[in-house]
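Hi all, posting the design record for the shared folder.

TITLE: backbone redesign
STEP: 1 of 1
STRUCTURE INPUT:
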């Protein structure tokens, strides 16, 4: 793993620049077994780095203040606000946009709209990427970079990177139609993506829990949601 600090190990993940932008049809709910495998894939590893904590959950504790930086049109601020509102409802976390100025403490999360493509040695061609710093499996700080690719791809980046920044730090091709799949062009998280956030922040799980202990609980949580009636047009009732 590439370490950028002595006391907090950063994780980095990015969206492949070649992700297609074609429209995809509405999909039926994946099976509960597939959803469990999806959660195991995206929650217990990281796209880049994080080997030292491989197999353990990371997530936030406490309030998160999010700062927007760089050059961005108002429509992208609206997209960020909408996505934060959904993640706030799904996770139960306090997530708010920081004021533009006048706050003494730095924000825990920064979303920077870059003026040039690339910008890191990890993946200079990626349209978006995220750095996570965590200590003892609790996320302390996040830096998200979104570069000037077409609007559709930047909207996908906003949905994917903000969701992954909560601790679902890897990509997966297990579920074809998913914000976590780089072959998807979705600009909103789907109901089964939302379920991944709900599972991660379920009170029966905790930061640092190893997957051998967590996965039986994860499967029970998913089964509970699925038993409420997962449909192709919405989250379980």
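Okay, here is what came back for every position:
SEQUENCE:
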């Amino acid at each position: 793993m590439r370490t950028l600090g002595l006391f907090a190990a950063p994780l980095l993940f990015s969206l492949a620049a070649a992700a297609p932008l074609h429209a995809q049809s509405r999909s039926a709910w994946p099976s509960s077994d597939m959803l469990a495998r999806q959660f195991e894939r995206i929650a217990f590893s990281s796209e880049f780095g994080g080997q030292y904590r491989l197999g353990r959950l990371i997530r936030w504790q406490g309030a998160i203040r999010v700062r927007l930086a760089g050059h961005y049109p108002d429509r992208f601020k609206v997209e960020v606000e909408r996505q934060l509102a959904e993640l706030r409802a799904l996770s139960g976390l306090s997530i708010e946009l920081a004021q533009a100025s006048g706050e003494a403490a730095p924000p825990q999360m920064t979303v920077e709209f870059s003026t040039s493509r690339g910008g890191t040695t990890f993946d200079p061609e990626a349209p978006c990427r995220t750095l996570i710093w965590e200590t003892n499996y609790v996320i302390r700080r996040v830096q998200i970079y979104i570069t000037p690719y077409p609007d559709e791809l930047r909207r996908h980046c906003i949905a994917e990177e903000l969701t992954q920044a909560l601790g679902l730090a890897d990509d997966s091709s297990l579920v074809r139609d998913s914000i976590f799949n780089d072959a998807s062009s979705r600009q909103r998280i789907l109901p089964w993506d939302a379920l991944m956030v709900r599972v991660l922040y379920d009170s029966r799980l905790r930061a640092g829990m190893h997957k051998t202990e967590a996965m039986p609980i994860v499967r029970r949580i998913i089964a509970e949601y699925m038993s409420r009636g997962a449909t192709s047009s919405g989250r379980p009732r």
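COMMENT: The first helix runs from residue 32 to 43.
Let me know if anyone wants the other runs.
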